Amino acid sequence: MGARGGRVSADGPAGADTAAGSVARTRGIARLEAASRARAAGIAFTTADILATLLFALEGARLAAESGLDVFGVIVVGGASSVVGGILRDVLLGDVPPFAFRTPSRILVGLIGSLAAFTLVATGAPTPDELFGVLDALGLALFAVSGARKALDHGSNGWVVVILGTIAAVGGGMLRDLLLGHVPTVLTSSVYASAAAAGALTVFLASRARVTPVTGMALGFVVCATIRILALAFDWHLPVLVAR
C-alpha cells in the first residue's frame, strides 16, 4: 500500500514535467508559426508596394511624356504618381518620416519606371491605352491592399483600413492628373476609388475571418483589380447628375 502510494507520488512530478514540456513545445511551435506568418506578410507587403510603385511610375510618366513634358517633367510626374499615395498613408498612420524617405528603394523604382516610360514614348513604341489601363488597375489594387494591410498592422479599425487603403491607391494618381492639368481620374473615371475601397474592405473582412495576411491581400487584390478591369471593359460608371 505504502509502495503503491510512493509510486504514485513519484510518477506525479514526472507526469507534470511531461505535460509542462508538451505545453512549452506547443507554445514554441505557435511562436514559430506566428513569426513565419509575419515574415510572409512582410514580404507580401513589400512586393505589393514595390510593384505598385513601378506600375504607377510607368503610367504617370507615359502620360507626362505624351503630354509633351521634357525628361525632367516626366520624372517628376512619374515619381509623384508612384510615391505620393504611400507617403500619405504613412503620414496619416503616424509612421514618419514616410518609408519612401527612409529607404531609397521606392524612389529608385519610381525613377526606373519613369525613365522606362519616357524611353518607350521617345522611341515610338506602341503604348496602347488598353494595356496601360490594365497596368494601372493592377497598380491600384496593389496599393489598395498594401495600404489596408499596413493600416491593420497599426491596429486601425475597419473604417480607417478602407479609407487609408483607398487613399494609398488614388493619392498618386490624383497628384499626377493635377500636375498635368486634368480633372483627377478618381473624380471622373468609371469605378476607380470604389474599386480600391472594395479591395481594402476585402482585406479587412479577411482579417476578421482569421484568414492569413497573405491570403487576405491576395483576395483584396483580385477583388479590386477585377472590378476596375471590368469597369474599363464594359464602361461602367457610377451615377452622375449631368450626362457626359
Descriptive notes:
With 244 residues, the chain is mainly alpha-helical. It has helices at residues 2-66, 71-93, 99-102, 105-122, 129-153, 158-179, 185-188, 193-208, 213-234.
Biggest beta-sheet profile: none
Overall morphology: elongated
Percentage of residues in DSSP E strands? under 5%
Uncertain regions: pLDDT < 50 for 5+ in a row?
Answer: 1-10
List SSEs in N-to-C order: HHHHHHHHH
Mean pLDDT: 88
Radius of gyration: 25 Å
Q: Which structural class do you get from the secondary structure elements? A: mainly alpha
Topology:
Elements: H1 2-66, H2 71-93, H3 99-102, H4 105-122, H5 129-153, H6 158-179, H7 185-188, H8 193-208, H9 213-234
Helix pairs in contact: 1-2, 1-4, 1-5, 2-4, 2-6, 5-6, 5-8, 5-9, 6-8, 8-9
Brief rundown of the structure:
The chain is mainly α. The chain has nine helices and no strands.
List keywords for this structure.
244 residues, mainly alpha, elongated, disordered N terminus
